[in-house]
Amino acid sequence: QVRLVESGGGSVQAGASLRISCVASRRLFSNNAMGWFRQTPGNEREFVAAISWNSGSSNYANSVKGRFTISRDNAKNALYLQMNNLKPEDTALYYCAAARSSYSGSDQSAYNYWGQGTQVTVSS
After folding, report:
1. DSSP-assigned beta bridge partners for residue 21
2. In the chain, which end has fewer C-beta atoms inside a 10 angstrom radius, N or C?
3. What pLDDT is recorded for position 15?
């Protein structure tokens, strides 16, 4: 079993930057993809970004493209999300997810492991 722990969330003003992190309890499978999703109360969890094992491929939701950057450090079993120019609509609980496969898309069912989430709140 893989445990994912997110950190780095907080409350910021609109326009600010924040980097959230996720650390896995052990080395993940080779070729596995990882991603970030977010959820607000009363809404379904939505895709934010995903990255392939070797960081050669990444995908983003249109709403964050150009503002967010996903990255990973496999030596540290870590995943990051750099969020710039934050907007109030980015306020959500952000989840880290890992897949057993190389799939690095937006389909949540492809991800096998999930963290508990870290809260990001952006005020106007």
Report:
1. 7, 80
2. N
3. 98
Q: Rounded to an integer, what distance in angstroms lies between the CA atom of residue 25 and that of residue 5?
A: 8
For the segment 61-79, what is each residue's pLDDT rounded down to a tens digit? 999 999 999 999 999 999 9
pLDDT of residue 49: 98
Per-residue tokens: 9: 């969330």
Q: What is the amino acid identity at position 68?
A: F
Mean pLDDT across the stretch 12-31? 91
Give buried/exposed letters for 19-54 (b at 16+ CB in 10 A, else e). ebbbbbeeebeeebbbbbbbeeeeeebebbbbbbbe
DSSP labels for 72-94?
Answer: EEGGGTEEEEEE-S--GGG-EEE
Using DSSP bridges, classify how beta strands 113-114 and 92-98 pair: parallel, antiparallel or unpaired. Answer: antiparallel
Amino acid found at 39: Q
Q: Is the dihedral of CA 27, 32, 36, 37 positive or negative?
A: negative
The span from the CA of 37 to the CA of 94, in Å, is 6
